[in-house]
Amino acid sequence: MPIVPSEIIIRKSAVIGDTSANGGRMTKTAVADQSRNGMFPNFTISERTAGKTRYRKFFVHVANDEDLALLDAILFVAAPTPAGDRVTIFAATWDDTQADIDAPDQYGAASLTSTAASGATSLIVTLEDSSQVIFREGERVRIWDGEDEATAEIFTADTVSKDGASVTLGLSGATTKEFAAGSPVSSLMDCGDIEALASVNVPETDNGEFNDTAVVVDSIGTIAQTITLTFTSATAFSATSDVLGSLGTGNIAASFAPINADYAKPYFTVPSAAWSGTWEAGDTVAIETTPAAVPFWAELVCPAGASGDTDNEITIRLEGGTA
After folding, report:
1. How far apart (Å, rounded) are the C-alpha atoms in residues 229 and 236?
2. Number of independent structural domains in the chain
């Protein structure tokens, strides 16, 4: 089966708040789809009056039980918010916090300034604020009618010309549909292929051999961590994670697959076939794993005196293909 929408889950970070410690690693806590305040809390009256910027970190997890990769994935803000605030996203690392944020390339959404006819090779859009820089030459953009996802078309911005809040985008192709004024135009954050991965450092041993392609990762259970396997005899080893501490003990005669209790899935599996040669106490193998996820930050800016909207919403989308 291909990856289905229910397997694409936005998860929250370990620390949530308006402090420098905000962010950190991925947790199992998911943002409920179409939930009120699922990503950000409401601005208070005093925050809306004075103005407030708030950050939250998230992870889009492709939790496919068949371990399929989401290919050529893109992450984007689907449309400007209906209220006077604005949201952008930008790349994160597996464990960074708000204290680490430093002038990132931001991605967001603008509105088509006037109707674009079918066959248009350029678009003029109006930013939510003239200070925004969300479109860059060589990056992809997406336009749709704001109601039907099937109308979406994606192009590369061959040229970008900014004049205050107005941006002209020269497209790599021509539109096949007419788009009305106000249609959302988004800048796209390229995420590459999203899949769980394992990387093995060269074993520290004289005679033992390890097949680094034999390690099996799991799209649901794998997390970002480095595991060190340290031999305690010729056949037995202990496993230590830089994130979780001890992961137990194993033996080269059997598969080693410590379980991630959050999902009842293995963090990784080292099959017995991975081992060959002669091992000695003190030998080590280091395995770095990364999950089938994309870490990102969302920035929500409420300008001083910004208008509210009872139906205000933020829509973040992840799209890609499967083999």
Report:
1. 10
2. 3
Range of the domain at 134: 108-187
181 and 270 share one domain: no
- What is the pTM assigned to this prediction? 0.94
Q: 3-state SS string over 40-58?
A: CCCCCHHHHHHCEEEEEEE
Q: What is the pLDDT of residues 203-255, one digit of tens each?
A: 878 889 999 999 999 999 999 999 999 999 999 999 999 999 999 999 999 99
φ, ψ dihedrals at 4, nearest 5°:
-110, 160
**Cβ neighbours for 70, distance < 8 A, ≥ 6 positions apart:** 3, 8, 62, 64, 193, 194, 195, 292, 318, 320, 321, 322
94 in a domain, yes or no? yes
Sign of the alpha-carbon dihedral angle for 163, 167, 168, 171: positive
> What percent of the chain is modeled with pLDDT above 70?
100
Quote the CA–CA distance of 260 and 218 in Å, as a whole number: 10
Q: Are 22 and 16 in contact (CB under 8 A)?
A: yes
3 state SS of 100: helix
DSSP summary character for residue 121 = S
Largest alpha-carbon pair distance within the chain? 73
